[in-house]
Amino acid sequence: AGDRWNLETATLIYGEKGGTTIFEPIFRVSRLYTNGQRLSAKLGFDTMTGASATGAMPSTRPQTYTTPSGNQQTTPAGKIPTRGFHDSRFSTDLAWEAPVGHLVKTNLGGHVSAETDYQSFGVNGTVSVELFQRLTTVSLGAGLNHDTVDPVGGTPQALGTGREDKGTHPKRVIDGMVGITRVLTRRWLVGLNVGA
Question: Which of 47, 57, 55, 58 is nearest to 20 (CA)?
């Protein structure tokens, strides 16, 4: 048999009268090669629009509150306080799985995600080894993520004079994982993963 292609798709549609509307299609395509290697890609796009209640009760007076980005918004008297929003996000994930011999399997991956005020880039990899007649699997993995946060309107300065920092704020995360899985019976297995 030759190489095999597989395409999967799903869509989430959600709406509330006078509230939040969500549209999220996802596509995943993969190719399985005759030598056991697999290449897969997942593409996603989601958009959210509408208004969300702030949790405050209606009042006989106008209400002014601060949004998460530090901006001020006023709700007229007698109205339920809500906050309008609109945001879109695009993401893609790539993965390459390849066996090394009969007992070792490697997996390399990466992802990119971007939205109005947040971007994320990452790479990861794992190596799995099957032992004891393939009843035990030991895995070792690591990942690196680099994210940037750029709040709409800037970030308010703590105890400041109202000035806002317009720059982006980077965040880098490095993590690792060691895991072991043991098959007990045809129906039962036990696993332990430790991450840092």
Answer: 47
Place of tokens 């997942």: 42
Which amino acid, 111? H
Residue where the block lists tokens 């300065």:
157
Query: pLDDT tens digits, residue range 33-69?
Result: 988 899 999 999 999 888 777 767 778 888 777 666 5
Distances (CA, A) of 9 to 3, 25, 44, 181: 20, 7, 10, 31
d(CA 91, CA 86): 17
Question: Which residues, including other chains, have CB under 8 Å from residue 158's CB and lie 6 or more apart?
Answer: none
Residue 92, token pair as written in the block: 């893609």
Q: Which residue in this structure is represented by tokens 């001020």?
A: 72
Q: Is the pLDDT of residue 13 over 70?
A: yes
Give the span between the Cα atoms of 196 and 47, in whole angstroms.
33
Contacts (Cβ under 8 Å, ≥6 apart) of 65: 54, 56, 72, 73, 75, 81
Report the pLDDT value the prediction gives residue 95, as an integer from 0 to 100: 97
> 124 with 109: CB under 8 angstroms?
yes
Task: Please tell me the pTM assigned to this model.
Answer: 0.72
The amino acid occupying position 79 is K
pLDDT digits (tens, 9 = 90+) for 174-191: 999 999 999 999 999 999
Identity at 151, one-letter amino acid code: P
